[in-house]
TrEMBL record:
It catalyses: (6R)-5,10-methenyltetrahydrofolate + H2O = (6R)-10-formyltetrahydrofolate + H(+); (6R)-5,10-methylene-5,6,7,8-tetrahydrofolate + NADP(+) = (6R)-5,10-methenyltetrahydrofolate + NADPH. Pathway: One-carbon metabolism; tetrahydrofolate interconversion. Residues 6-120 form the Tetrahydrofolate dehydrogenase/cyclohydrolase catalytic domain. Catalyzes the oxidation of 5,10-methylenetetrahydrofolate to 5,10-methenyltetrahydrofolate and then the hydrolysis of 5,10-methenyltetrahydrofolate to 10-formyltetrahydrofolate. Residues 139-280 form the Tetrahydrofolate dehydrogenase/cyclohydrolase NAD(P)-binding domain. GO terms for biological process: L-histidine biosynthetic process; methionine biosynthetic process; purine nucleotide biosynthetic process; tetrahydrofolate interconversion. It comes from Duganella guangzhouensis. Pfam families: THF_DHG_CYH, THF_DHG_CYH_C. This is Bifunctional protein FolD.
Length: 288
């Protein structure tokens, strides 16, 4: 078997084309959708991701502004900026790029973002909403994965879904979303013994561990859907996922490439959440 590739870049661009029309409509109705991106420090990977997000904004007709703060910026200064953005009616989404420098308390910063502008879906309120299946802003990476899964036409209900990686921004919310769709979900992580014992049972395998080559062909059930969330930059400059592409491609039915798989969808779902937030703002200001 040779897996069909799921083209995340193509899906991302077609979704963004439709979003552009929604943004135009909102603007006509008096609300220009806007996203504020806050970047503290000069991490080169973060700079690439932020650039991709700003480019996607212009592709979708969303106004964007970036706040580039030096690495030494104090937590109080970041909180002050967020307070301003919370009050600013031209801003519908606030994204604070992670990771933050170690002297800044990430939770305190995220919890200071207005719940209805938390387009990353990282605020405790939005995390709680996700747990009970009522989320307004699903976190962008698992949300994008869900749309990639949808393109295969496979019904998640009753399937064995295995998530490798238990981070707050990918693994845990991903598992919750799959559970919401009635998959039987296992979460594996760095302390899991005999990873292959779990992965071999997966009809749907989502890998977000940050370890190049972690998943090889013999660990994958024949005919599985494999979604590679990993982004690893090798010494030679190549970008690879967590999945050993060539060997897994011989076992899986569907596989996402890296780059061009999950990454562009993460950015696209950020646009979706920003538009949704702008839409809610437009509803609030519409005449009765
Ligand atoms: N508050 C916050 N929200 C995030 O959503 C967030 C974050 N912080 N910190 C870092 C991670 C990572 N992330 C990606 C965004 C775009 C690509 C992306 O565009 N990838 C392309 C290109 C990859 C490349 O050239 O390096 C691809 O996979 O094809 C990947 C990963 C968002 N994150
Ligand atoms: Mg109209």
């Amino acid at each position: 078997m040779t897996a069909q590739l799921i083209d995340g870049l193509k899906l991302a661009h077609s979704l963004r084309a439709a979003m552009r029309e929604r943004a135009r409509q909102l603007e006509e109705d008096g609300v220009k959708p806007g996203l504020a991106v806050v970047l503290v420090g000069a991490d080169p990977a973060s700079a690439v991701y932020v650039r991709n997000k700003l480019r996607a904004c212009s592709e979708c007709g969303i106004a964007s502004r970036q706040h580039l703060l030096p690495a030494e910026t104090s937590e109080a200064q970041v909180l002050q900026l967020i307070a301003q953005l919370n009050e600013d009616d031209s801003v519908h989404g606030i994204l604070v790029q992670l990771p933050l420098p170690p002297h800044i308390d990430v939770r305190r910063v995220i919890e200071s973002i207005a719940v209805d502008k938390d387009v990353d879906g990282f605020h405790l309120y939005n995390v709680g909403a996700l747990v009970i299946g009522q989320s307004v802003f699903p976190p962008c990476t698992p949300y994008g994965v869900q749309l990639l899964l949808d393109t295969t036409g496979i019904d998640v209900a009753g399937k064995n879904a295995v998530v490798v990686g238990a981070s707050n921004i990918v693994g845990k919310p991903m598992a919750l979303m799959l559970l919401q769709r009635e998959a039987t979900v296992s979460i594996c992580h760095a302390r899991t013994r005999d990873l292959a014992q779990y992965t071999i049972l997966a009809d749907i395998l989502i890998v977000a561990a940050g370890k190049p080559g972690l998943i090889t062909g013999p660990m994958v059930k024949r005919g599985a859907v494999v979604i590679d969330v990993g982004i690893n930059r090798l010494a030679d400059g190549r970008i690879v996922g967590d999945v050993d592409f060539d060997s897994v491609r011989e076992r899986a039915a569907w596989l996402t490439p890296v780059p061009g798989g999950v990454g562009p969808m993460t950015v696209t779902m950020l646009m979706e959440n920003t538009l949704r937030s702008a839409h809610r703002a437009a509803m609030q200001h519409a005449p009765a």
